[in-house]
C-alpha cells in the first residue's frame, strides 16, 4: 500500500467519523432549560414474602448446638444466607 492509498484511506475514515458526530447532533432533545418535561406517575407495589427473613431467631454456637441468639453469652454477628445472596457477597 503506497502513500497515496494510505492518504485516501485516512480521508475516508475522517469523513466517516465526522458524519457520525453530525448525525448525533441532529438527535439532541430540544427541550429548553425553562421547560420541564413531566414524566408519568409510577406506582410501586411489593410484598415482603417473609417479614423477618433477615432476623434469625436461633444460631449454632461453637459447640455445634443450636441456641436462641439471646442466650449466647458472647457477641456474635449473625448474617442470614439470604442477606449474603441479596448483597452478592464474595468474601467475609
SSE blueprint:
Elements: H1 3-26, E1 58-60, E2 66-68, H2 81-86
Antiparallel strand pairs: 1-2
What proportion of the residues is helical, as a percent range?
25-40%
Kindly name the structural category: mainly alpha
Q: Report the total helices.
A: 2
Rounded mean pLDDT score: 73
Question: How would you describe this structure to a colleague?
Answer:
With 92 residues, this protein is mostly helical. The protein has a domain at 52-91. Helix content is 33%, strand content 7%. The chain has a two-stranded antiparallel ribbon. The chain is elongated. The model has no long low-confidence stretch (mean pLDDT 73).
Keywords:
single chain; mainly alpha; 2 strands; two-stranded antiparallel ribbon; 2 helices; 92 residues
Q: Could you give a short description of this structure?
A:
With 92 residues, the protein is mostly helical.
Amino acid at each position: 500500500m503506497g502513500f497515496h492509498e494510505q492518504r485516501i484511506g485516512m480521508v475516508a475514515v475522517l469523513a466517516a467519523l465526522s458524519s457520525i458526530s453530525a448525525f448525533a447532533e441532529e438527535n439532541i432533545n430540544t427541550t429548553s432549560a425553562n421547560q420541564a418535561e413531566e414524566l408519568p406517575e409510577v406506582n410501586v407495589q411489593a410484598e415482603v414474602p417473609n417479614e423477618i427473613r433477615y432476623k434469625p431467631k436461633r444460631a449454632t454456637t461453637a459447640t455445634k448446638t443450636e441456641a436462641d441468639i439471646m442466650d449466647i453469652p458472647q457477641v456474635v454477628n449473625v448474617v442470614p444466607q439470604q442477606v449474603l445472596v441479596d448483597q452478592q457477597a464474595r468474601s467475609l
